Task: structure prediction
Amino acid sequence: MARYGMIIDLRSCIGCGACIAACDMENETPWEEGKRRTHVPKFTFGSYPNVTVVYMPRLCMHCENPPCVTVCPTGASHVTADGVVLVDHEICIGCKYCVVACPYDARYVDERIRSVDKCTFCYTNRVLKGEVPACDATCPGRVRIFGDLDDPNSEAGRIAASGLAKPLRPELGTNPKVLYIPKVKSV
Amino acid sequence: MEPLVQQAWGWLIALYLFLGGMGGATMIVAHYFYSVKKEKALAAPGSLAALIMVIVGTIFLILDLEKPELFYLALAGFQTSSWIFRGTLILSGFMLFAALYAAGLLPWFKWVPWHDDEKILSWLGLIASGFGLGVMTYTGVLLGVIKAIPFWNTPALPALFVASALSTGISAIQWINIAQGKKRPESERQRFRGYCTLLSKWDAIIVSTELFILVVYYYLMSSGPVEAATAVRITLFGDIRRAFMAYLNLALLGGVLMLFVYETKTWARPGLEDGWKVSLEKSCFLPLLAALLIMIAGLILRVVILQAGVMAQLTP
Result:
C-alpha cells in the first residue's frame, strides 16, 4: 500500500495562489476566507533592509496518528488504506470536535453540506485515477510534490527519506505526512 | 500577531457544559439527602431538576450540531476512542437512572413498582450519582484531552470543572431547599433552615476549593506553553477580561455570602431578625442570592474557558 504524502518546498513558493484557485475549482469549496481546503499565509521576518518573506502553503497534514479521527464520535473522519484522512460527509454530524482537536487548523464547517470539510489530497476525484492533487498539478513553482513517501523511486519519497523536509509540530506525535523544506531566512 | 482562538464551539456548548456539570452534581447532592438525611422533600425535586438540567444541556449540545437530526450517531457510531461517544454513553446512563430514581420518589409516579422502595431507590440513586460524577468529570475531560489547545490540555481543567459543577449543584439544591422550606409550616421548616446552613457551609468550602484550583491552574498555564500563557493573558488583560472578572467576582462574592450565611445561621436563627431588622421570612434572600451568583459564575466560567481556547500559530 502507498503512503501518500506531500512535500512542500518553501524555498520556491511565491504566493501566487494558483493552488488555492485550483483546489477551490476542483473541489467546489465555499470560496470564502477560513473555509478553504488549502491556503497560503504570508510571513515576514526581519526589518528593512534585512527582510525575508515566506509563503507557507497549508492544508490537512494527513497525520499518521490523526487526533481528528480519534475524537470523531461517528467514524466520519477516517483513514484510508493509503493513509489519506477523509471525512464521510454522510455520517458527519457536525459536532466540530475534530475542528477543535486538529492542531493544524486544517478543518472548517461547510454550511452548504452541513458537514466538516478539509483537504482530501483530491483522493477520490484524482489520486485514485492516477493523477496528482489539483494544487500539485497547477503549482507553477513545483512547490508541492505529491507522492508515495515510502516509494524510493518517487520524488516525494526521495525527499522524505533524505530528511530535508520536516513535519510541523513533531512534538505532538501526530506524524504528519505533509513535510516542509524550510526556507533559510536571511535575518 | 493576533492569537488564534478556536471558533468552533461557542455559547451553546458553554451552556451544555454548565448544565451537564450542574445536573450531575445536583443529582449527587439530592441523593445524599435521600440516603443520609432521609429527606425525600429534597431528593425528589432535586433529582427531577438534575434530570431536567442534563436533558436541557443535551438539547443545547444537539442544537450545536450541524446535523441535529443525526445526533443518535454520536452513540450508534460506536467510536470508543471519542470522548463525545463516551460522554453520550455517560449522559444516556445518567438520564436513564436519574429518571428511574426520580420516578420512584415523585408522587406522580406511584404506579412504578419501585415507588418508595428504599432499597431499590438507594441503588438507583447510587448508580445515578455515579453517572452524575461521570457527567461532571466528562465535561472537563472533553476539553482536557485536546492537545491542540494547551490551555485546555491539563488535568487542572477537569478538576476545575468538577469543583465548579459541585458548587453550582449545591447552589441548585439550596434553591430547592428554601422553596421546599418556605411552603411548609413553621414546625417543619426548621429542618430546612438547618439544611440551608449545611449547604451554605458546603458551598463556601467548594467555592474556596474551586478558586484555589483556578489559581493553581492559571499559575501552571502562565508558565506553560506559549499558547496557554497567551490564553491566561487574554483572560486577564485581553478581550475576555470582563467576563473572567465577572466570574471571579461572582464566585468570590457567592462564596463569601455562603460563608456569611453559615456563620450567622441566616434564615436558620430566629434571633437574627432583631439585630439585622430583617424578617425571618425575608432573610432567605441571602442564601438565594449567593446560590444564584455561584450558578451564574459557573456559566461564565465555561464561556471564558471556551473563549480562551488559543491554538498554536503555525509558522515556517
Q: What stands out?
A: Residues 186-222 of chain B form the longest helix (37 residues).
